[in-house]
Amino acid sequence: MKKLAILAISALALTGCSAQDITLVRLAAHDSFVISDELVAEFESETGYELEIIRLGDTGSLTNQLVLTSNAPVADAFFGIDNTFAGVATDNDIVDGQMQAIDYSDVCFNYDLDWFGESSITPPTSWRELGQEQYRGLVVVTNPNFSSPGLAFLATTHAGFETSAEVFAYWRSLRDNDLKVAGSWEDAYFVDFTRYGGDRPIVLSYASSPSAEVKEDGTPGSAALRTECFRQIEYAGVLNNAANTPGAKAIVEFLLGDSFQASVPENMYVYPINEAIEVPEAWAKFAQPADSLLGEGLEINANRDQWLTDWSDVFDN
Asked: How far is Cα 8 from Cα 28, in angstroms, rounded to an integer?
């Protein structure tokens, strides 16, 4: 009887562990992902799952970590792999089923209107001008090895010039003009950008970013160079070998739902993929999509390694 009792207790303990595992769903995301407590509560109430968010750095770091842990994933689902890194996910077979587009924005440079208003320097009108002497020491970008905006801009330059020689002549002009390369978008925008106390009034960001810089009097604090930009699309999906595949599917479906989609503009300053969702009124004035795009037909995945090697050669030599 004692042996039977021990077996029964052990069985109950194991059952409890299984139930706990099944009710927990883990979402891996980049550091810029935002979901409110209210939306988390809505998801948990609707589905019965408990949501844990695991932040894995910028988009490149997120993708690389998911590849490295693919046999024993750190999460069940992901958010934030974008169209510059999607090929890495596909090549390494980390996604169960199809990736679902969640949001988009256009990667382009932003500049601090107040800084330029107080200086004698005229703001640039195109990223092609940033190697010019008047912009020496004024520009910060993100490292394309780790940051999706950085890789998106690297792709933009390949789309914008006829030859690789022209591309890297441009990058050398930036390097020689005291370009700063930050490790992440957060560092570039919230540390180096002059609007947050940094010393760089031109930052690689998004066409929608100026909506976050509207001042109390309703005037803009920054503006975007909205020509020849790169459209970035962010995805969510279920991970292969997930511990909780049904829960993973549930959180992906929730990210596509109206409640989360409506939160995307004000929380992450990007456009929801659902075009039926109304964006804030101020966006019509301060956060319009790009006037023109580059790079939509590029084979980023096929060229990424060579592009990054060449880019690193520019900055390491």
From this structure: 36
